[in-house]
Design goal:
Length: 281
Amino acid sequence: MIKYHVSDYIGKQYGHLTVIGQSKNSSIPNAFDFRCECGAIVSYAPDRVISGGQKSCGKCQFSRVQTRPHNDLEKYIGKTKNLLTVIGYSKLPSDKKWRLDCQCQCGNTSRLFPYQFDNGSVKSCGCLRKDNHKTIDSRAKHPLYGLWFQMINRCENPNHIKYYRYGARGIKVCDEWHDFWKFVEWSDSVGGRPKGCTIDRINNDGNYEPSNCRWATSFQQSINKSSTRILEYNGEKKSIAEWSASTGLSWALIHGRVSRGWSAEKALTTPPNQNLSRKNS
């Protein structure tokens, strides 16, 4: 059996334990006294600590904490969702699972499970909660807040009624616009939101981001839909809705004609009282 002389080990650290002297009150033969990093003084057989079998006092935050989580949480670091940015991950003694350490835009920090960050169920450190039925979030009073919130929601909330047209198709909101005030800055930079207009993506398959968005009327947005049918006539390409506006023919009339095989020229130049079933020869 190895004989340990305490004078050879005083001041040396093993795990979270530092040797401070020979134990005088322990029932363990030749035990050493150790100071844990939490401040507790404990007695152990020296070989138990020196061999790595005991790393802490066993009752503090350094106890029973895994060195690394089972799942890869490093991929979350730097990501932002709602008001929270992941700055690390940790597991305290009271935790059964690892959590993400997040910095809120208000300056406070919070800890949440990865699934809470993924589904957006936790949006802030708590600063968005209502206090005495009065919101402490000044964003909610801004006229663009509801529109911004729905933009985020339909892209990131699988339960949103329109998620299948946005998030499910891979449409995302850029990281910059997860900060509501950055979205407001963009709106101001393009002259603000005109009356009757909503946010529209120029490339219908692209993301919500400054270079791909504009304020547009419902008519302009209907033209931009992926399902919009485009007709070419006299070197011009327009949607049926646009041709309807320029020719005076109803959308239903033009659409019915091209659906029955009429050429764009005949569909757009034939007076409305002509037989709709006639096809272009």
